[in-house]
Amino acid sequence: MLLEIKDLHVSYGAIRALKGVSVQVGEGEIVALIGANGAGKTTTLRTASGLIRPQSGDITYKGKSLIKMPPHQIVSMGISQIPEGRKVFTRMTVLENLEMGAYIRKDKDNVKADIRNIFQRFPRLEERKHQLSGTLSGGEQQMLAMGRALMSQPNLLLMDEPSMGLAPMLVQEIFTIIKEINQTGTTILLVEQNAHMALSIANRAYVLETGEVVLAGPAQELANDPQVQKAYLGE
Ligand code: ATP
């Protein structure tokens, strides 16, 4: 396994956000974490990025434990997070945001080539490259957040609610791009409230409820599971 989250316990003061979550992500997979508001999906991702320290449990990446590493070291190991709500640097231009994504890289010549690649994938970002990011639409900001994360050349992308707040047509476009990013060799752990879309592109998925994994399996199987359909697919 590329990423192994083992029996993770996380509390915010008296609130027990994760009560023994275990999730595995294999090289090349898209793995989805689905579940209602407050189930613990974001907490799981933020712990993997080193932004939250767990009370107990372990997270290993290529066999190495991440839980004592600072976030920047986790990024340099090949893990990049696209945060909930995009969090682009609104007072910087599109181009500057992409350059920030490459801040840990030493190969500055290749950075330029990668920015060209990002612009090929997201032509709308190129059209707006000198625009301040705060003036972009929600969908464009999501594309920029994805582009910025790709600039660190991650092997594993942690994505938090990429579809949040986007119009249905854009949601479709973003999910198509996620699939393409995966097909070029990037493993993806995807947190989504849009269970329908998440299950349509994922290989496997985990269902979280109040800090615990209650169901896990191949995405197709979960999409056909009556319990999942009733609770998460509105069927
Ligand atoms: P959402 O879709 O709303 O992000 P989620 O599944 O990602 O939901 P988390 O954000 O991980 O869930 O939250 C899990 C639990 O921890 C919830 O009960 C939430 O209220 C609580 N929680 C999250 N962040 C904090 C915080 N900074 N301080 C206190 N409680 C928190």
Structural account:
The protein has one domain (3-232): Rossmann fold (3-Layer(aba) Sandwich), CATH 3.40.50.300. 38% of the residues lie in helices and 26% in strands. It is built from ten helices and ten strands. β4 and β5 form a beta hairpin. The mean pLDDT is 92. Bound molecules: adenosine-5'-triphosphate. Pfam families: ABC_tran. It comes from Desulforamulus ruminis (strain ATCC 23193 / DSM 2154 / NCIMB 8452 / DL) (Desulfotomaculum ruminis). Belongs to the ABC transporter superfamily.
Largest sheet: 6 strands, mixed
Question: Order of strands in the sheet with the most strands?
Answer: 6-7-8-3-9-10
CATH superfamily: P-loop containing nucleotide triphosphate hydrolases
CATH architecture, by name, is 3-Layer(aba) Sandwich
Gross morphology? globular
Assign a percent range to the helix content. Answer: 25-40%
SSE run: EEEHEEHEHHHHEHEHEEHH
User: Per DSSP, what share of the residues sits in E-state strands of 2 or more residues?
Assistant: 25-35%
Low-confidence segments, ≥5 residues, pLDDT <50?
Answer: none
Global mean pLDDT: 92
Q: How many whole angstroms does the radius of gyration measure?
A: 17 Å
Q: Which ligands are bound?
A: adenosine-5'-triphosphate
- Summing up helix and strand content along with how strands pair, one would put the structural category as alpha/beta
Family: Belongs to the ABC transporter superfamily.
GO biological process, one term: L-amino acid transport
Protein name: ABC transporter related protein
Organism: Desulforamulus ruminis (strain ATCC 23193 / DSM 2154 / NCIMB 8452 / DL) (Desulfotomaculum ruminis)
